[in-house]
Amino acid sequence: QPELAGDFGTLMVWADGVRRLKVRANAETPLDAKVAREFGAEGIGLCRTEHMFFDAARITAVRQMILAEDEAGRRVALEKLLPEQRADFIQLFEVMAGLPVTIRLLDPPLHEFLPHEEAEFAEVASAAGVDIDVLKRRAAELHEFNPMLGHRGCRLGVTYPEIYEMQARAIFEAAIAVAEKSGSAPIPEVMIPLVATRRELELMKAVVDKAAQAVFADKGATIEYLVGTMIELPRAALMAGEIAEVGAFFSFGTNDLTQTTLGVSRDDAARFLTTYVERGIYARDPFVSLDIEGVGQLIEMAAERGRATRPDIKLGICGEHGGDPASIAFCEKIGLDYVSASPYRVPIARLAAAQAALAAKG
Ligand code: PEP
Ligand code: MG
Predict the structure, then answer these.
(1) Are 74 and 134 in contact (CB under 8 A)?
(2) How confident is the model over 209-263, as pLDDT tens digits?
(3) φ and ψ at 205, to 5 degrees?
(4) What is the pLDDT of residue 1?
(5) Does the beta carbon of 253 lie inside 6 Å of ligand 1?
(6) pLDDT, tens digit, 9 for 90 and up, residues 127-144
(7) Residue 48 C-alpha to ligand 2 middle, in angstroms?
(8) N or C: which terminus of the chain carries fewer CB neighbours within 10 A?
């Protein structure tokens, strides 16, 4: 346990005795999950499943799935992906040993999955047994001018529910396998990305619940789980009262929420935000330290509206801001339950959470 040694370890023990906020980590590989636990993470707050799909051994099947012309074609590719996805979750549940694990269903901007090189198209063509020109036509159909505001997040799940069905199956099969092997059942928190409306969450929750029931019947075992949502669009924050009727938890995706509230691209922003900070327009880079006046207002309002509907709703934050001390102080102030940070920022988050708790006591 690298950070538990010496004075720093003593400080961490002290901080843990003081803080109220739980600290989780953003992790999708077993290695990251292990590092996170060594640094004191109390669960995974965000497992980005699209990162698993980029794995070199899988990407051809993923592209086959995305480029398939119909549901039957997508299901053929998804069957290839299911065993590996199940193995991903088994490993994560094992490392996290009963701590909460929030698994976010697929949320890629679609263009990241599309093949570009001739050789990539050729590989998919041979895997799918489809003519290369058919694949190229399909890729052209799927092209988007602004993929970050396009067919991503739960919009993919709405148009291709079989993708979320496969992932949910993998999650529940993995959880049951780990429960049987270790005797302690993981409690997966299944998270739906980029939700803007109650209906989207309702439709996606139905897909997850149906997959859960199918797996439970098949395995003759059940496990507890939660279905909740990211709040990362202003509309979701505004409609949080309604959305909380369906979702058992909210996780604030402050990267996208900052992007969509400020209307500033998270990928290109750095170029002019430096000038903006120099001119005093924003106190700090709002993608690094939460824009408390603006984005913070939306978060506070969504938390209040969510709680008004569902008093025990679980509230966390999983954008980059989850590891930033000033943002963590704000999370403490509005009473979130946890922050989730990248594994190496977990110790900083534990300390910042303790400082925030002390400040709150006055
Ligand atoms: C976010 O938008 O804040 C988030 C955590 O999701 P991602 O960074 O994967 O879009
Ligand atoms: Mg996001």
Answers:
(1) no
(2) 999 999 999 999 999 999 999 999 999 999 999 999 999 999 999 999 999 999 9
(3) -65, -35
(4) 45
(5) yes
(6) 999 999 999 999 999 999
(7) 9
(8) C
pLDDT digits (tens, 9 = 90+) for 312-356: 999 999 999 999 999 999 999 999 999 999 999 999 999 999 999
Which ligand is in closest contact with the Cα of 251? 1
Report the nearest atom of ligand 1 relative to the CA of 255: 3
Q: Which residues are CB-contacts of 57 (< 8 A; sequence separation ≥ 6)?
A: 84
- Prediction pTM value: 0.96
- Measured in Å, residue 70 CA sits from the centre of ligand 1 at 29
Kindly state the tokens that stand for 335.
Answer: 């009473």
Checking ipTM against 0.90, whether it exceeds it is yes
| Pocket of ligand 1 contains residue 319 by CB under 6 Å | yes
Question: From the CA of 252, how far away is ligand 2's center (Å)?
Answer: 9
Quote the Cα angle for 281-287-292, to 5°. Answer: 65
Give the C-alpha distances (Å, rounded to integers) separating 77 from 74, 163, 211, 253, 315. Answer: 5, 10, 18, 30, 35
